[in-house]
Amino acid sequence: MCSVVSLLGLVVLIGPAAEALDNGLALKPTMGWLHWERFMCNIDCDKDPDNCISERLYMQMADVMVKEGWKEAGYEYVCVDDCWPSHQRDAQGRLLADPKRFPGGIKKLADYVHSKGLKLGIYADVGKNTCAGYPGSLGYYETDAQTFADWHVDLLKFDGCYMDWTMLGEGYINMSKALNKTGRPILYSCEWPLYEWPIRKPNYTAIRETCNHWRNFNDVYDSWSSVKSILDWTAAHQDIIVPSAAPGGWNDPDMLVIGNFGLSHDQQESQMALWAVMAAPLLMSNDLRDICPRSKELLQNRRIIDISQDPLGRQGYHTAKVDSFEVWERPLSKNRLAIAVLNKQEIGGPRGFVVRAVPGWRICNPQCNVTQILPKYKEMGVQTPHSKMVISVNPSGTALLTVTPISSDSKRMHELYWQDTSVKHKHAGIL
């Protein structure tokens, strides 16, 4: 059985997105490392000094990011999540780092990270407390923004715990203004829609004007069921969320858990491929000091990163279901197309997928050149609309392709594809 999404909703991608936050940042999806999923709120440095939330952990990650090619591959932010502060502010109302775990303070850590040519991210909360119970920023937005600027922080992840939902938008907007007021460019990562969706549909025009990227759905766990739930939610809400993504502001499906414990290698490839097609921030949460070579190679795959960082800056869509395969497509610069084919069947062995079943295959009229990036790099050569090319996809794995039209009017074919207005998504039998 084949059900295909029409592309009426995709026409919005041809026009400009809503006005982006005016700080000149996140012109491409953010790349870096974030501690939360792997290290959580481990503050016991006496029993577990190598894995506790301390300045040592971030300095070691910064060292590895430079030494092991992560910085060269594009990963530039080293991000601190919850559980870094003291439980009390100082006499002037300013946040303080825990003195035992961060004896040099955040400014020293920022200086160290900057000395490596990297950038530092910090965590705070729009409400009265962080999710782990540390001091929140409610009532201290300008104070905290200036503190982060004084510390030379480069990114703020701003959570939404312990906050009346009716005040969420005001709080996120006020912190955005406070950050810009400091004069320091600080990338602003919000969780505004995540906390508003249970009550009402968020205003993505306002969110894009306020934040550089924004979480929409549940925290990612180190499991395939978690990754699948994020993909399913994104597909079900894509008509609402995808039009807001463009240079300066991105939908954030949460961290990459590649290199941890819960995903098979095929599932790791699926997360990497689909996060790239979704134009998602690539924020790893893993232990870069001890990561298997195969996971490292995947995370540093330049061809996948090139799709993620494509300068056209359009997020991809879930466009078809075909016999327990899902097709996701992303328009790329130079009239190209990225195609991810996910095998949702989790029994048996590899299955073949006929690529001409992809809705965007029409851009191969009269010819196109196809490159397979995952599961293995392979030049598939020149193809036509009638090619019988079949790709093999493992259970829960993903094949990732790029397609380049060969035509004197390839740009026109590309635009016609993304402007197809046959039927709305909701009538296509997918959403």
From TrEMBL:
Q: What is this protein called?
A: Alpha-galactosidase
Q: Which reaction does it catalyse?
A: a globoside Gb3Cer + H2O = a beta-D-galactosyl-(1->4)-beta-D-glucosyl-(1<->1)-ceramide + D-galactose; Hydrolysis of terminal, non-reducing alpha-D-galactose residues in alpha-D-galactosides, including galactose oligosaccharides, galactomannans and galactolipids; a globoside Gb3Cer (d18:1(4E)) + H2O = a beta-D-Gal-(1->4)-beta-D-Glc-(1<->1)-Cer(d18:1(4E)) + D-galactose
Gene Ontology CC annotations of this record: extracellular region; lysosome; membrane
- Entry EC no(s): 3.2.1.-
Question: What GO biological process terms are annotated to this protein in UniProt?
Answer: glycoside catabolic process; glycosphingolipid catabolic process; oligosaccharide metabolic process; podocyte development; renal filtration; renal tubule morphogenesis
Query: Family assignment?
Result: Belongs to the glycosyl hydrolase 27 family.
User: Which InterPro entries does its entry note?
Assistant: Aldolase_TIM, GH, Glyco_hydro_27, Glyco_hydro_27/36_CS, Glyco_hydro_b, Melibiase/NAGA_C
Q: Sorted alphabetically, which keywords does the UniProt record give?
A: Disulfide bond, Glycoprotein, Glycosidase, Hydrolase, Lipid metabolism, Lysosome, Signal
What does the organism's lineage look like at the top? Eukaryota, Metazoa, Chordata, Craniata, Vertebrata
Molecular functions (GO terms): alpha-galactosidase activity
Species this chain originates from: Seriola lalandi dorsalis
Residues annotated as signal peptide: 1-20
Enzyme type, top EC level: hydrolase
Which residues does the UniProt record annotate as the domain Alpha galactosidase A C-terminal? 313-397
